[in-house]
Amino acid sequence: MNSQLFDTDNIDIAWCPGCGNFSILNALKQALAELGIKPEELVLVSGIGQAAKIPHYFKTHVFNGLHGRALPPATAIKAVNPDLTVIAESGDGDMYGEGGNHLLHAIRRNPDITTIVHNNMVYGLTKGQASPTSQIGFRTPVQVKGVFENPFNPLAMAISMDASFVARVFAGDIAQTVEMFKKAISHKGYALVDVLQPCVSYNKVNTYQWFKEHTYYLEDSHDPLDRLKAFEKALEMEKFPLGVFYLNPSKKTFEENSGVYQENKIPLSRRKTERKEKLKALIHSKK
Amino acid sequence: MNKFKDDISIVLCGEAGQGIQTVERILTHVLKLSGFNVFATKEYMSRIRGGSNSTEIRVSSKKVSSLAQRIDILIPLSKSAIEHVKRRISPYTIIIGEKENIPEGFPVEKYRVIDVAFSKMASDIGGRVYSNIIGAGVISGLFKVKEEILRDYLKQHFSKKSEDIIQRNIEAVKKGYEIAEDLLNTERIEFDLQRDPRIRDEILINGAEAVGLGALAGGCNFISSYPMSPSTGVLVFLSQQMNDFEVLAEQAEDEISAINMAIGAWYAGGRAMVTTSGGGFSLMIEGLSLAGMLETPVVIHLAQRPGPATGLPTRTEQADLDLALYAGHGEFPRIILAPGKLEDGFYLTQRAFNLADKYQVPVFVLTDQYFIDSYYNIPALEVDKTTIDSHIIKTDKNYQRYRLTENGISPRGIPGHGEGLVVVDSDEHDEEGHITEDLELRTQMVNKRLKKLESIKKEVLAPELIGNKNYKNLVIGWGSTYHVVKESLEGLKREDTSFLHFKQVYPLHPETERFLQKTEKAILVENNATAQLGKLIKLNTGLEIENKILKYNGLAFTVEEVRSNLEKYL
Predict the structure, then answer these.
(1) Each residue of A40-65: pLDDT tens digit?
(2) Cβ–Cβ of B253/A83 closer than 8 Å?
(3) pTM for the whole thing?
């Protein structure tokens, strides 16, 4: 299938020239096309920020909600209609800052959705403040003496919570990014993909070159079923490993556990359940 | 001798954890099954054990559905009980209890105290826990409830307990009946009440169940909420219907998640609600604004309790009308319904789902702790009068989610139903749903969203006028004060005074002004400090209601209290 299927016409893209978002956009379209997913079968959910505008550059179903709040609606959309492929995509501020609590609980629920986080270690749309993943010492007009808080480690957090799919890629390597998105989307259960990405306007420290020098691919020998090893790898902060850190394919999804699909596989959105007789009986039981 | 006629107010008071709620449930059911009208409501402290909680049960020949101030029979189950309800005790109150629960210095000689050694008898049966069942037996016995009705109910109620426990409960019941028989035989108490066999066929529910049943009737298949008193009962009720009614019930990590899930569920084709109270709703406000912008339906059950902040978590107030009315940044329409009767809880919640779907706006069901926790018998709810109206369309290739239409309502599609794409955006958007900064289009979109209010106004529920059409005085109330005001006025027997009750508080019915203009004197009754409905009426009609009966100590109005306050004005 052709990735142009997802292209939209006449769009005014709000990203800076040279932004890493472009390669993520193209990689995602490519991955979806290769998986044979059609625009009408996909819902892209996002929050607010530059990364969160990505659904507007896609021809598909879109739910562009509130800052930090992409995961609750994404979870609900998948639960109401499991036939849809649901991807929640936003930036590091949105997913790891404003929406941090929802991320924790999305991992606990394990809906069969994919979360893609554009992680450029800076707030772009609000013009250059620190993000939860900014490195110590990173100076901004707000963090005038440099960031002193420990950067948030999304992978270590996710592995510690036994998330069912945890990976990291670098947006500078499009081929690997496409492959990773394909794996994540095909994975049954909650998948978190942290995408390292430069911000050409506001992050002069963590540039393309810097990421190239500070990342490496996990060895072929890495066993993603080994949770402790995965955790150990996730703690490496000098040079960021890339690849699938951790997998737990045995977990049941939120939809499976929700109780509404045990006997009836028809999506809730399409069910026409006749309730009147049951309701009368329930009311009668209150006599 | 104490002879009670037609309307008896029984209060059980004790500590949290003593099983007062169990006794309330048992007694209301067996009394109803015996053909008596019953009403029960509770007031309780925010704790799991200890403190002082009380339950009032009114038993009467006529239908009663409101809280009485007076106590005819008091059963104190703890040392602090009498102190807790002392303002409601009169020389006519009969206190049935054990000596140790009568506080020192209590002038026993001035009151009618019947010493019954509940604890001792309970210990003989197998433990102090049986005290409350003996109490239930005494009350049932006094009302001459057939012993087997109570025994059957207990067997059913304790069906999951061991045979031994059931037997001990039955023994406790027997003991209670013996005490009652003694009281009746020695003519210390006598009741004169009418029984109506038709009451047996009525249902006995509380406000939480009424709202929950209404949600099911409205097609609710998704609830996401965070537990918060007094709204949790609706979440519990719907969670328990998960299997029979295929309702997905999820306890969210916070109220922010709850409302964003509900909005996502509607977007995908579900019919979702949230249930919460003031503090939780405050967290939902950004989500409310999202629903306004996305034009995604959502039903919000907001059970009020006194604030600000944590306030009085287990008590009641009608102080969040302003909050529901003005919550959310930006301008968008909404609908606020406020049930007065239990029946309203059912029909209005059902209606809320249809209105939300039709107009693609947030719809509130505004209740309070008093409404949610009060039980009484009502005729069975008529399911055949309800409908589940879905306004979802099948999309075509050129579908535009926010097509500009004459009445502002754009046909709502859902993903996967038709060939179209459904694009919704919290940013200002174009007709397709994509982000825009076209400021001309912005104006059109604001107008489109606000235009829906015109259609909404065409089907506002009229306020109910109780009493003479040609009134000189008009008492005005809304939501849960329906029965208490109605009963107070019945007691006053004033031909010239009527009651106007609002069960839809926003938008206000266009006739509101006419109702007010006709009256010489208007008197407002609200369970809050600032007369929030009064302010809304003034905003809509320019008419100020100067006479106000307001209560905001955390408790519901009693009939006597409303009556004596009305007398001052009339």
Answers:
(1) 999 999 999 999 999 999 999 999 99
(2) no
(3) 0.97
A263 to chain B nearest CA, in Å? 10
Scan residues 162-191 of B and list those with Cβ closer than 8 Å to A.
none
Give the burial class of B461: count Cβ atoms within 10 A of its Cβ; 0-12 exposed, 13-18 middle, 19 or more buried. middle
CATH fold for domain A3-262: Rossmann fold (3.40.50)
pLDDT at B158 over 90: no
Q: Does B567 touch chain A (CB under 8 A)?
A: no
Domain ranges in chain B are 2-200, 204-385, 392-459, 464-569
Write down the pLDDT at residue A3: 84
For residue B302, the tally of other CB atoms under 10 A from its CB is 25
Nearest Cα residue to A123 out of A158, A96, A102: A96
Radius of gyration of chain A (CA): 20
Q: What is the pLDDT of residues B281-321, one digit of tens each?
A: 999 999 999 999 999 999 999 999 999 999 999 999 999 99
Backbone angles phi, psi at A61, to 5 degrees: -75, 140
> Which residues 420-439 in chain B show a CB within 8 A of chain A?
420-427, 433-435
Q: What is the mean pLDDT of residues A140-167?
A: 97
ipTM for the whole predicted complex goes beyond 0.95 = yes
* Closest residue in chain A to residue B244, using alpha carbons only: A278
Distance from CA of A65 to the nearest CA of B (A): 5
Task: Classify domain B464-569 by CATH architecture.
Answer: 3-Layer(aba) Sandwich (3.40)
A73·B264 Cβ contact <8 A: yes
As a three-state string, the secondary structure of A250-264 is CCCCHHHHCCCCCCC
Kindly report the nearest CA distance between residue B418 and chain A, in angstroms: 9
B205 inside 8 A of chain A by CB = yes
- Choosing among 3.40.50.2300, 3.30.565.10, 3.40.920.10, 3.40.47.10, the CATH entry for B2-200 is 3.40.920.10
Say which of B246, B423, B426 has its CB closest to residue A66. B426
Q: What is the pLDDT of residues B34-83, one digit of tens each?
A: 999 999 999 888 888 888 899 999 999 999 899 999 999 999 999 999 99
Query: In CATH terms, are B204-385 and B464-569 the same topology?
Result: yes
